[in-house]
Amino acid sequence: MMLLSPLTPLEDLLRNVLDWLHVTVGLPWAWSIVALTVIVRLLLVPLTVRQIHSMQNLQRHAPQMKEIQKKYKTDKKKQQEELMKFYRENQINPAASCLPLLAQFPVFIALYFVLREFSKHPPGGDLSWLGHHFVPDITAHANAHWSGYLLLVIYVASQLVSTMLMSSTMDKSQRIMLMVLPVVFVTFLLNFPVGLVIYWVTTNLWTVGQGLITRRLMPKPAVPEKRSSRTPPKEGEAEPSAEEAVEPAPVPKPPAQPRRVKRKKKARR
After folding, report:
1. How would you write 207-264 as a 3-class SS string?
2. What letter would DSSP give residue 140?
3. Is 163 buried (19+), middle (13-18) or exposed (0-12) by CB count in 10 A?
4. What is the pLDDT of residues 2-55, one digit of tens each?
5. Would you say the pTM of this structure is higher than 0.85?
């Protein structure tokens, strides 16, 4: 109980927001959870902006980072040291891309306890989602109805799409881990309330839309300029050395052979 006590104010806040959305606005409890998810994501916009800037920074420096990884491919410890040094020199914070996800975990856990309290003391109003034939009760476990399994499939699909959109700068091992994680997490969600799955599906769909907009607005990384020894150096750039300045002499082409023209013999009279 002592571990959960810090979340009590957040639980009360979520319950009050849900009550306001249901009683004052007039939304059903399930749609109140969707509206609550949108409110939470709007409050996380500043962290999302930092996440997008971090992704842009990582994408801009991706070629240099790949060179470091390639150079120290056999020495993982040295590779991590050089990458951390590169992050400090270029003011890159790789953890910034995880801030919105980390900020949502307390909300996720607090909403779980709110819905558990709903199941013990059902509030007034309709607890179904899209009619009683789809989800009869949002406080029931996801494995209690066929619609819960359908929502879990949508959750996994949306989580995989959001991962592919938001992890383009990660290395292969990290991407594989993030792709496998939602499939493993399903085993835990089976015993969670359906309302919690609705919250997570909604936030995943928000992330997918955010990723599509980000990919459209994010500038492509600049292609390095092709230069030769005759290209004048930029301001603050060192002059090329004498060895670099010497270009290989062009190989002379063999002289063209004169074309022989056959003359027609004159007819004798």
Report:
1. HHHHHHHHHHHCCCCCCCCCCCCCCCCCCCCCCCCHHHHCCCCCCCCCCCCCCCCCCC
2. S
3. buried
4. 444 577 888 889 999 999 999 899 898 899 999 999 999 888 888 877 777 777
5. no
Q: In sequence order, what are the residues at sequence separation of 6 or more whose Cβ sits closer than 8 angstroms to the Cβ of residue 165?
A: 207, 208, 211, 212, 214, 215
Is-contact 97 166, C-beta < 8 A? yes
What confidence score (pLDDT) does residue 2 get?
Answer: 41
Q: ∠131-135-141 over CA atoms, to 5°?
A: 160
Residue 57, number of CB atoms within 10 A of its CB: 18
| Pick from 89, 55, 47: nearest CA to 170 | 55
Tokens encoding 233? 């150096």
Contacts 24+ apart (CB under 8 A), 136-139: 137/194, 138/29, 138/30, 138/33, 138/193, 138/194, 138/195, 138/198, 139/115, 139/193, 139/194, 139/195
Could you report the per-residue pLDDT of 132-145, keeping only the tens digit for each?
A: 788 888 888 888 88
Q: Position 14: which residue type?
A: L
- Residue 11 identity: E
Instruction: Please name the residues in contact with 102: beta carbons below 8 A apart, sequence gap of 6 or more.
Output: none
